[in-house]
Amino acid sequence: xxxxxxxxxxxxxxxxxxxxxxxxxxxxxxxxxxxxxxxxxxxxxxxxxxxxxxxxxxxxxxxxxxxxxxxxxxxxxxxxxxxxxxxxxxxxxxxxxxxxxxxxxxxxxxxxxxxxxxxxxxxxxxxxxxxxxxxxxxxxxx
Length: 142
What we know:
single chain; alpha+beta; Alpha-D-Glucose-1,6-Bisphosphate, Chain A, domain 4; six-stranded antiparallel sheet; 3 helices; globular
């Protein structure tokens, strides 16, 4: 098995108070193709610590949990894809003259040898992955 701790940054032309929403369960629906979080209970604030939601693809289902929130500076999520991988995703926002610098950190552990190979591939492509976020957000904001 393996563990990968990855971090990369992007800029968003909004102040942290406005950019923060883009990195929430509901906010990502605006710019992530196919992102469709399902909340098992009524959830008025999707950034409240302890909030749970599910995402799924044809291959797997992931359970997400808001671990911590310091609006508008950071939000951290625990995520578990049973039998595949588990870890955290932390988004930190800092004000800049042009908006926000957003640092996205993944700390993931593979749970099987096959998942380890996929995590290695994800790690190798992580800078491109975060660049794609910047492109998708820019297109959404245009």
